[in-house]
Amino acid sequence: MNHLTRELAPISAAAWEQIDEEARERLTPHLAARRVVDVSGPHGWDYSATNLGRVRPVNHPSERTALVRQRQVLPLVEVRVPFTVARDELESAERGATDLVFDDLDRAAHDVAVLENKAVFHGWEELGFTGLAASSTTALGADAESYPHAVAKAVDVLREAGIKGPYALVIGPLGHRRIVETTEQGLMVLDHLRRILGGGKVLRAPGVDGAVVASLDGGHFVLELGQDVAVGYSHHDADSVTLYLEESFSFRVLEPDAATALTE
């Protein structure tokens, strides 16, 4: 038995297969950060910290001739979001049903993605994570017709810093909807933005405030996974089973000049 304790759940193999598949389908569109940064791992649940390759001096007055230094690491954070599944639905899976209702799983997948996206794009100061949006900012505005100008300015900032493309525009759900619904002199704003980004991506990212333009050239940002997002078992009663989505990760910005934030 591992830390997910799935063996203790009153869930058949057929139902677990559907739950895992639904979790993958609902998570993938939301995990925008993973399409922009380098991903290392997963290294396993027992993987606790990212090696930073640095040391700090330690005073040791009783050994004046000794050089004492401590290795520096970045601890991973564990994220767990619970959700429930009705036992009636699980029983239906045992009868062969393949259209189980997982509304609460959809909410949990969204919440996990928001936490991960926020940590990558806006940082998590308490944990020592610096986000992509911390380096510089450009005004985005609230009108989608103004987005191409703002994104072009952001791309110029990156190019002037010697950061190669293609580039990605990562934007919150409201801004993304504005983009796909707006035309500019007969041209879809989405198509215009892709040209400005050098053939890069325009990504919808729940949890992102404003937007971020970042290089897709690689080697600038690292999301390190211990446990990739997985479904675990918590407890159950006569009506429902409480499960959870869980992951562990750290995030580092290796090149701060490789991203710039856009604020409304």
Total domains: 1
Structural class comes to alpha+beta
Number of helices: 6
* Overall 3D form: flat
* Structure summary, number of beta strands: 14
Tell me the major beta sheet. 5 strands, mixed
What helical percentage do the residues reach?
A: 25-40%
Give the radius of gyration.
22 Å
Instruction: Give the integer mean of the pLDDT values.
Output: 92
The CATH topology name reads Major capsid protein gp5 fold
Unreliable spans: none
Note the gap between the termini.
Answer: 49 Å
Tell me the CATH architecture: 2-Layer Sandwich
Please specify the SSE layout and strand pairing:
Elements (H helix, E strand, L loop, with lengths): L12 H15 L10 E3 L8 E9 L11 E7 L1 E10 H8 L8 H20 L14 E3 L7 H14 L6 E5 L1 H9 L1 E2 L2 E2 H8 L4 E4 L6 E5 L5 E5 L4 E7 L3 E14 L5 E5 L1
Parallel strand pairs: 1-11, 5-14, 6-9
Antiparallel strand pairs: 2-3, 4-13, 6-10, 7-8, 10-14, 11-13, 12-13
Task: Give the tags.
encapsulin nanocompartment; five-stranded mixed β-sheet; 14 strands; 264 residues; ENCAP; alpha+beta; flat; 6 helices; Major capsid protein gp5 fold
Provide a short characterization of the protein structure.
The protein is of the alpha+beta class and 264 residues long.
Please explain how this structure is put together.
The protein has 264 residues and is an alpha+beta fold. The chain has one domain (6-263): 2-Layer Sandwich (Major capsid protein gp5 fold), CATH 3.30.2400.30. It is built from six helices and 14 strands. It has helices spanning 13-27, 87-94, 103-122, 147-160, 173-181, 189-196; strands at residues 38-40, 49-57, 69-75, 77-86, 137-139, 167-171, 183-184, 187-188, 201-204, 211-215, 221-225, 230-236, 240-253, 259-263. Strands 1, 4, 11, 12 and 13 form a five-stranded mixed beta sheet that branches. Strand 7 (183-184) and strand 8 form a beta hairpin. Helix 1 (13-27) packs across helix 3 and helix 4 (147-160) runs parallel beside helix 6 (189-196). It starts with 12 loop residues before the first helix and ends with a strand. The mean pLDDT is 92.
